[in-house]
Amino acid sequence: MTATLLKEASPPPAAPADHDRKRRARRRARVIALAFVFPALLLLGALVVYPVLFSVGRSFFDASGDRFVGGGNYTEMFRDPATLKAVRNTAIWVVIAPTLLTGLGLVLAVLVEKVRWATAFKLLLFMPMAVSFLAAGIIFRLAYDEDPEKGVLNAAAVSVHDTFKEASSYPTARARDGQGLTKAADGSYGTRATASPGDTVGLGLVGVRAEDLPGSARPAYPAATGKASADELRGVVYLDFTRGGGGEQGKVDRTESGLPEMRVEAVRDGAAVASGTTAADGSFRFQGLDPGSYTVRLPASNFAPPYEGVSWLGPALVTPAIIGAYLWIWTGFAMVLIGAGLAALPRDALEAARMDGANEWQIFRRITVPLLAPVLTVVFVTLVINVMKVFDLVYIIAPGPVQEDATVLATQMWLVSFGGGNNQGLGSALGVLLLLLVIPAMVFNVRRFRGSQR
């Protein structure tokens, strides 16, 4: 009786026609999906797969592409000093830039939560992401210019330097040949002949620009004709040049200007025994000198060239300078992503730690950072992939003479292939090397995304 009831209650088996209909529907759905995906797959194959396969194949041929060289390009790649320097610079980029950006983004994301205008602050920091690398490179090329009249960083550096240390009085001044002054190895000038207390010494210089003369400068003639007392050594430092011509070299003429604020020393037995600064008419006097012979010296500090700032784009600093430009662009990206992860943190854990007496530093170090570890890892790995491919900033910011000192794998690949090397076999090998370096980071990132979705 029970078996009969169960048999009557079970649904009738599906007809073969229903199975065929469902199978055809699934097949049609797959065909429609493939039709929609096919253009994207075709584009992906044309722009990604084919270039990768072609580059791999091209890397086994010589520069002309006619002769098969096997692994010769890969061997040459690691023998070339420029390529080794590119690998070294790329390693510096991979270690420094993502680390600084992740740390800076974390600090800013935590601090922004505590300011009133958080949205405006985030917008301000994220704004450089809207600037292309080309435009950013031009901006920082100008900012890093060594001329303080053009480069804003050197203008600031020179202003700070000149605030704490005075510039030299007459950087372009020099003595006439054969006019009684000799130049020492350290850049100072001294008199050939000796002088004694009671003498008056004239020190004529040329090469002083009109704009370098202080407004307080007065004619030197009255000081040059004055008489010294028996226990003093007097003299005058003057511009040995008469406007409009005329005058006599080595002699103070009536219209020639004194050189004020010039440091002067009286030297005996190689040591300075007295020093002073010239007055508005260029005069100086040393009183109370012991009897004997002295030479008068103008120290090199009077003629030192003005401070011109830092050579930001020199061989030593060009890579850190470019990394600084990269930080300016990508700091907002790291801050926004870490800030999104920070907003998703469980607030009850933070409040519980505060109630237990933990200070803000302990909360940040023991709770916030461990909970943000997945987000920090994703940001770091994403930035690693990005810096391995950096090209625009390096190529635009680094001047030609230091291009080799700043080169990375991406720029080296372009320079070898198209920038004058014309060796696309070696350039393809560099591209394959760059691809092999990027793939592990990409695989790691994909696995992290899949793990977070699960």
Folded structure, characterized:
This protein is of the alpha+beta class and 454 residues long. The chain folds into 3 domains: 24-58, no CATH class; 72-156 and 312-453, MetI-like (MetI-like fold, Orthogonal Bundle), CATH 1.10.3720.10; 174-302, no CATH class. The protein has helices spanning 2-9, 16-58, 72-77, 81-112, 118-126, 133-143, 152-164, 221-224, 318-343, 347-355, 360-371, 373-388, 392-397, 403-406, 409-417, 424-453; strands at 174-175, 181-183, 189-191, 200-206, 232-239, 263-268, 271-277, 283-287, 295-298. The chain has a 5-stranded antiparallel β-sheet with strand order 2-3-9-6-7, with no helix packed on it. A hairpin with a 2-residue loop joins β6 and β7 (271-277). It starts with a helix and ends with a helix. The model has no long low-confidence stretch (mean pLDDT 84).
- Percent in strands: 5-15%
Along the chain, the helix and strand elements come as HHHHHHHEEEEHEEEEEHHHHHHHH
End-to-end Cα distance: 50 Å
Q: How many β-strand runs? A: 9
Summarize the main sheet: 5 strands, antiparallel
What is the alpha-carbon Rg in Å? 38 Å
Count of individual helical segments: 16
Give the CATH class of the largest domain. Answer: Mainly Alpha
Give the CATH architecture of the largest domain.
Answer: Orthogonal Bundle
What best-fitting shape do the alpha-carbon axes yield? elongated
Strand arrangement across the biggest beta sheet: 2-3-9-6-7
CATH topology of the largest domain, by name, is MetI-like fold
Determine the fraction of residues in helical runs and give it as a percent range.
40-55%
- Class inferred from helices and paired strands: alpha+beta
CATH superfamily of the largest domain: MetI-like
Stretches with pLDDT under 50, minimum 5 residues: none
